[in-house]
Amino acid sequence: MRNLLLRILVASQWGASLALVSGCGTHVESGSSSSAPEGAASGVSSSSSSTGGAASGVSSSSSSTGGVTSGAGGGGEVDPPDASAPLDPYPDPTCVGPFHDGGYYGQCCYEVHCTAPVGGACPAATEAAPHLDDLPPGSGTCTCSAEGEGAAGWIQGPYANRTASDPASCCYLVGSISCEGRPLLVRGEPRVAPLAHAPSAWSQTDVRRFERALADTDLSELAPAERRELARRWAERGQNEHASVASFGRFALALMAQGAPPQLLEAAHRAALDEVRHARLALAIASAYAGEPVGVGPLPLHGALDDLGSLEALTLATVVEGCVGETLSAIEAEIAAQAAQPPAVRMALQAIARDEARHAELAWAFVRWAVTTGGARLRERVAGAFSRALDQVGAGAPGIADSDLPPSHGFLAADELHRLRQQAVADVLRPAAAALVDERGSSAGREFSGARGNAVLRGGATYLST
C-alpha cells in the first residue's frame, strides 16, 4: 500500500504522474513476468470500478451503509410462524433508503428469495440465510444491514410465495448494494446493460496469452453450484466494468464542460479504454465458468447526459467514486490476484489492479485541480466529503462470509474484505486526503518541486512506517 500512497500523493499534489501515464502500457501479465502479452493493448487512474470521477449526482450522504429506511414492510423479528398459517404475499421488490457513497454505490435494493419450510415453519428473517440460495455475497455486492430502531435489515420476511403450488413457500426480501466497478448513475440509479447468453465479442479478448490460459483452466473440481455462482459473479463484474466505460465517457464530457486541462481529458479517455478491456476479461471468465458465451446487450443511456453537473457536484462525486472507490478497488483487486489460483483469473485481476491504480491517480489529480480552481469553499466541501466517506468505509460492518465459494477464484471473503478496507482507510486514504485538502499544498499547475516533493514523500513513508 505504501507505493500506492506515494503515487496518490504525487498525483494529488502536482498531477505529475499524469505526465508519465502516456508512457505506461496496460498489459495482462502472468505471475512475476513483466513482459506484455501478445495482442495486449497499450494505454494507460477508482478505481472503481473504476473511474476518475463521473458527474453522477451521487449524494455525499453521511448515512452509514446500514441506515436504510425501508418501505418494504412485512417480516420483522418475530417468532417463526407455522408454514400453514396465512402469510402476507411479498411486496414488490424496490430500492429504498439513502444512497451510500463510502465505497458502496447506490441504494439498498431488494430481491425475492424463497425456500421450503424448515421443520414445518418458515424461519424468521434472522435465521433464514442458511436456507436461501444465491444470496448476495460479502464481496462484489454489499449487503444492506439494520441500524437503529425501525431500520430495515438485509433480509425481511417471511412472506408467502405468490405461486401457491411452489414448494418454496417461505419467501424473503434480500437487500444488497452494488460495489463492483465505477457505477454509471442516472438520476441516482445505477445503470448496466443486460446480460446476453449468446455468442458475443464481449465474451472474448484479443489477448492471446490470456485466452490460452483461460482455455487451459481446469474447472472439473468445482461443483456445478460453485461454477454457476462464479459465472454469475464474474458476469456481474463484467456488467459493472462495461457500465464504467460510459461513466468515464461522461466524465470526459464533464471535464470539457469545466475547462479542465488536456492531461486530465487524455487520462479519462485512456481509462475508458481500460474499462472496455476489463469488461471483456471479466465476461470471458464468466463464459468459461458458465460453459457458454456471456456478453452484454445495449446499454440504455436515456437521461445519462441530461445534467453534467457543476464543478462542485463533479468534484464531490469524484471524491467518493474515484478517490475512495477506485483506490479501494485497486487494492482489493491486487490482493484478490495474489490469492487467485487459475492463471487466467490471476492475470485478469493483475491487469485490473494496475489500471485501477492509475484511475485512482486520475481522480486524485482532478480533485486537486478542482479545489485549486474552486477555492476555499470547495476545498471545505471536499474535506467534508472525504470525512464522511472514509468514516463510512471504516465503520462498515463485515458482511456474511461466503464460505461455500472457493476463495481462489477471484473474490475475497467478506471478513478479509472488511479488514482490508479498514487498513486501506488508515494507511492510504486518510493520509492522502489530508495532504490533498491541506491549504499549504502546492497548486495543481505548479511544476513538481524536488524539495517539496521529497518532503511529502518522506512524510507519507514515515506515516506508513509507524
Please characterize this protein's 3D structure:
By secondary structure, the chain is of the alpha+beta class. The protein has helices spanning 2-14, 16-21, 125-128, 208-215, 224-257, 262-290, 311-339, 343-374, 376-395, 414-437, 450-465, and strands spanning 95-100, 106-115, 141-143, 155-160, 170-178, 185-186, 189-190, 195-196, 295-296. The radius of gyration is 22 Å and the shape is globular.
Mean pLDDT: 73
Rg: 22 Å
Q: What percentage of the residues does DSSP assign to strands (E)?
A: 5-15%
Q: What's the total count of β strands?
A: 9
What would a concise description of this structure say?
The protein has helices spanning 2-14, 16-21, 125-128, 208-215, 224-257, 262-290, 311-339, 343-374, 376-395, 414-437, 450-465, and strands at residues 95-100, 106-115, 141-143, 155-160, 170-178, 185-186, 189-190, 195-196, 295-296. It is an alpha+beta fold. A hairpin with a 2-residue loop joins strand 6 (185-186) and strand 7.
List the topology elements.
Layout: H1 2-14, H2 16-21, E1 95-100, E2 106-115, H3 125-128, E3 141-143, E4 155-160, E5 170-178, E6 185-186, E7 189-190, E8 195-196, H4 208-215, H5 224-257, H6 262-290, E9 295-296, H7 311-339, H8 343-374, H9 376-395, H10 414-437, H11 450-465
Antiparallel strand pairs: 1-2, 2-5, 3-5, 4-5, 6-7, 8-9
Features:
alpha+beta; globular; 466 residues; disordered C terminus; 5-stranded antiparallel β-sheet; two-stranded antiparallel sheet; 11 helices
